[in-house]
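Protein fold
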Amino acid sequence: MESSAEHPIVLAILDNIRPTKSVICSVLAFLEAVEEDIEKPEGSSPLATVQQREVRGNGIVGQGRRVPKHVARFGLPTENVSGDLSGRKTPQVRTVIPRLIDYLNSRRFDSADPSLKIELLHLISEPFRSMLGLSLGPMRITPSGKSAASVIEEVLKQAEARGIVSAIAELLVGSKLEVCLGGPRAAEVAAQHKWENGGDDPTALGDYRIENVAIEVTMVRGPDESHRIKANKITQSGTDECWLIVRSEKIKAWQDYLARAPGRYPSLIRCFGICEFIGQNLTETRWRSSSGLIDPLRDVMAKLNYLVARMGRQYLPAASVELVG
C-alpha cells in the first residue's frame, strides 16, 4: 500500500517538509482559494496574483473557512478540519506554496481551460485529503495467528500509510501505560496525552513521565542527535531514567548509536522497540497493575479507541483500530 506521504504529487510539493496537519491544511486552503478564484464571474486570476492576495505571513487567508469548504466539495466530513484546529501559523507555507505553484505552472495551469484547471486542482488535492484520514475507516487488523508484536507492527504500518504514525505510536504507548498501571497512575498518564497531532514540545522532558522515568516516543527512521541530547538532559542528575521507544526494526541501530555516543549516565538510558514494548505482556513493565488482564492486547486497543473517540474532531475513525476475526 503506497503511503499518501510518498505520493509523487506530495513529494513534489512537500519534499523535506514534514506533513503536519497545519501544512496539509495550508495546501488544501490554497487549492480552495484558487478554485474560488476560478469560479468568479469575471474569470480567474493568474496564480501569482492569487498567491500575492491569499498568502499572508505564515498562513493562508481564511484557512479555517476554506479547508472545510474544500473537503465538503468531495462529500467528506468536515469535523476533522472545522474550527481551524490545525492553527493558521504555518511558516512552511513560504516554501510549500511556491512549490505548489511551480507544480501547477509546469502543467501550464494559467493557460488551461477552467474545467481542466479544476480537474488538476482536485488531482493534487486527493492525496493531501487522504493524509487527513477524512475518507478512511478504522485500521483493520486480523490478530489470529500473529504475535502481539506483529499486530502492533501492522497497526503502525497502516498508520504510516495514513500519515499519522507518530501520533498513533504515542497513543499506543500511553494506552499501554494506562492499562498496565491502573488506578491513580492511569489518571496521571491520561493527563499527559497530547490531544493534537503537533510537534514535540522542545522543553518537555519525555512524552510521558512516571515517577523517575521519562518515556520518549520517536518514530524517526534512525538514531538522531536531538533525541540523544534530550535523553542526556533527562538523565543529567543521575537519578532519572529515560526510556526511548523507537521503531522496532531500528532497535539495534539505536543501541549501537547510544553505545558510541553515551551520556554521563549511559545506564540510565534504555531503548525499546515499540512493537515489543506494546505487544509484550503488560505486567512485564516496571509497574504492575493490581487488576488481572485477561487480554492485554485488546485492552490496549480498547483504550486507544477510547482516546481516539475523545479526540474525534481531529482523528475521526481513521486512527481507531478494529481487531477482526
About this structure: Residues 144 and 325 are 7 Å apart (CA to CA). The beta strands are 55-56, 59-60, 139-141, 208-210, 213-217, 241-246, 269-273, 321-323. The two ends are 22 Å apart (CA to CA).
